[in-house]
Amino acid sequence: KRRASNDSAESRAKRRRLPAQQRDDEAKPAREEQSDSESDSDSAETTYSGQVNAEGEPHGRGTLTIDGVLRYEGRFRNGLKHGRGTLVFLNDQSTLSGVFVDDELTGLGEWASGDDGYTIRGMFVGGVPHGRVVEYDGARVVFEGEYREGVRHCELGVLNLADGGRYQGGFVNGEMHGDNSTYWFNYEHFPNIVLRGDWRQGKLVRCRNHPKMVFDESTRTSISSNPMARDPFESAVVTVRKATTEMAHPNEGLFAAVDIPAGVVCSFYNGLRRTQPENNARDWDDNDNAMTLVEEDDEQDGVVIDVPAPYHELSKYCASLGHKANHSAHPNAKYDKCEHPRFGFIKCVRTTRDIKAGEEITVDYGYSNNDCPKWYRKYAN
Fold first, then answer.
1. CA neighbor of 142 nearest in space, from 7, 9, 16
2. Tens of pLDDT along 208-219?
3. Are 237 and 257 a contacting pair, CB within 8 Å?
4. C-alpha 240: how far from its chain's center?
């Protein structure tokens, strides 16, 4: 029942699919019987304003709107989008821009999301990325490599994850897929901590330098196939020892083993997975290390991860250590979400300021005085 504050909504390592390109027969405006060089024509589905040819077809510069769904502004030739222009998808304001040939974006172009600053720039064929591209999330480079028919597909590409991780290797049908690939937990600040191995359909199936670090997502009954195999990144960056905060429960805490900059994922929160309704039916004392991973809504029950007894003891489970971070009203870290090459989609602990080696790492559990375990109520009072 611990609730993460300021959860990241990012999970953009997944492939992005572009809106379907409007085809020729859908995108052509209705012909008007006129020979003027300028036209303002309307039909039940299409409006066009701009230059036309002798047959009344768009020819030259103009603006075409279709069903209130698409708007194209740019050059036409004999009724088709042809030349430099921009296609706007009005439902989400995403855009497709560049040079159009016979109604489709072909060559160097750009697709841009209308709401979150995500863009794909590079080669397009038939209106979709095909060839060398670069993906951006604002100014941050997300992916560099090649696309095939709208998805990542290449022998060597680089994917920069929102949690600081980086994958360099092959891609097939949008997924990480290749031999002798390399994964950095944090390329910028800890470039020497890596996994080298083979990925299949987005999953690490063989790790050459850490053999137990293969994809091993937890279930309702299994927290890990190797519960005592420590994560190589955590082993270098954090440690567990006697807590210094009075809010410790039990008397253990998560500490920085090295200096950790602000904004860095420093620890991982793996656990057994159960539904939110199942978790909410349990007593607080049984949910001491339970954490909401996916919120419940009208379409799904929600997912909770938990580190229950006996796994809360380091002698029984030390594959991840995020559950050892104690609560503080003045925390130096927060809970976030991440994609881990071994655990899959889990929670993590991300620093909110620079933390010195030896300093305890704390988070805000997000409890309220009316909805909290007994130990928290005692200290809160």
1. 16
2. 999 999 999 999
3. yes
4. 29
Strands of the sheet with 265-269, listed across from one edge: 265-269, 344-351, 333-340
What's the confidence (pLDDT) of residue 55?
94
Contacts 24+ apart (CB under 8 A), 44-50: 50/76
Cα 155 from Cα 170, distance rounded (Å): 4
Tokens found for residue 229? 């195999």
Given a contact cutoff of 8 angstroms between Cβ atoms, the answer to whether 107 and 101 are in contact is: yes
Strand, helix or coil for residue 105: strand
Q: What is the mean pLDDT of residues 353-375?
A: 88
Say which residue the tokens 């998560």 belong to.
Answer: 254
Contact between 215 and 204 under an 8 Å Cβ cutoff? The reply is yes
Q: 143 with 174: CB under 8 angstroms? A: no
Token reading at 330? 């003045």
Kindly write down the DSSP assignment for every residue of 302-336, as one continuous string. Answer: -EEEE--TTTTSTTT--S--GGGPEE-SS-SEEEE
380 sits in which H/E element: helix 374-380
What is the Cα–Cα distance from 94 to 150, expressed in whole angstroms?
16
Entry field: residues in the chain: 381
Structure-token match 């072909």, residue found: 106
Active site residues: 269, 323, 327, 335, 365
Tokens of 238: 């954090």
> Which residues are CB-neighbours of 243 under 8 A, at least 6 positions away?
251, 252, 253, 326, 360
Q: 271: how many CB neighbours lie within 10 A of its CB?
A: 26
Backbone angles phi, psi at 299, to 5 degrees: -105, -15
C-alpha separations of 347 from 121, 136, 293, 319 in Å: 31, 24, 7, 14
Q: Concatenate the DSSP letters of all residues of 4-70 into one string.
A: -SS-----TTS--PPPPPPPHHHHPPPP-S---SEEEEE-SSEEEEEEE-TTS-EEEEEEEEETTTE
pTM: 0.84
Q: Residue type for 51, please?
A: Q
Tens digits of residue pLDDT in 303-349: 999 999 999 999 999 999 999 999 988 999 999 999 999 999 999 99
Instruction: Give which of 245, 250, 244 is closest to 288, Cα–Cα.
Output: 250
